[in-house]
């Protein structure tokens, strides 16, 4: 099965007041950390969805053969537009599924990515495989190509979770994780300060 990653990095950073993905962290940037993790995974390609030139990507990751930067002109209309840009790109490559990741979650571990991919490979009929924390679905979420037509009908800032409810939940697999740090995202200056000080 051919799996690709959709690395969503076109957010507005409105609560931070500047591009949070460019903030320094771990000898690189906030946005570059999880990208490096994704590039180590068994995903065949990582599509980085941006609205402007991603100066936050390290030169090492930028030239990685798996790395492909996709400019999404409609990204300002919400997360669903970034997702649709990713899907349109991956459809031409004939992938069986995409793993949706958020660029402002630097602590997503490699083993989580691999566990999600492995579940899809051993049960191909699953429409999605999602991580969860305290019973709430959260990225990374792997979406089967069979969901792409419905995802292309989304609008606004709702993302794929709009389709992962009700009867649809019976068509996928939810993997619970109990470490808050894995899903810690960087939205505000306080989040970033906590990140630097090691507060979990």
TrEMBL record:
Which GO terms fall under molecular function for this chain's record? Answer: nucleotidyltransferase activity
Alphabetically sorted, this entry's keywords are: Transferase
Task: Enumerate the Gene3D superfamilies for this protein.
Answer: Spore Coat Polysaccharide Biosynthesis Protein SpsA, Chain A
Instruction: State the InterPro entries in the record.
Output: MobA-like_NTP_Trfase, Nucleotide-diphossugar_trans
Mention any Pfam family matching this sequence: NTP_transf_3
What residue stretches are annotated with the MobA-like NTP transferase domain? 6-165
This chain belongs to the protein called NTP transferase domain-containing protein
């Amino acid at each position: 099965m051919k799996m690709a990653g959709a690395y969503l990095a076109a957010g507005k950073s409105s609560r931070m007041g500047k591009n949070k993905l460019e903030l320094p962290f771990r000898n690189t940037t906030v946005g570059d950390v999880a990208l490096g993790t994704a590039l180590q995974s068994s995903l065949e390609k990582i599509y980085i969805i941006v609205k402007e030139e991603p100066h936050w990507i390290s030169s090492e990751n930028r030239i990685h053969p798996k790395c492909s930067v996709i400019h999404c002109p409609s990204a300002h209309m919400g997360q669903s537009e970034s997702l649709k840009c990713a899907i349109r790109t991956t459809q031409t490559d004939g992938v069986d599924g995409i793993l949706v990741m958020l660029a402002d979650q630097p602590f997503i571990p490699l083993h989580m990515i691999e566990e999600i991919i492995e579940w899809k490979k051993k049960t191909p009929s699953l429409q999605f495989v999602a991580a969860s924390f305290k019973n709430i679905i959260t990225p990374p979420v792997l979406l089967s190509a069979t969901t792409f037509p419905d995802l292309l009908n989304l609008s606004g800032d709702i993302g794929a979770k709009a389709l992962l409810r009700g009867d649809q939940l019976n068509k996928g697999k939810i993997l619970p994780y109990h470490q808050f740090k894995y899903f810690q995202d960087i939205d505000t200056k306080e989040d970033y300060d906590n990140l630097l000080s090691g507060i979990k």
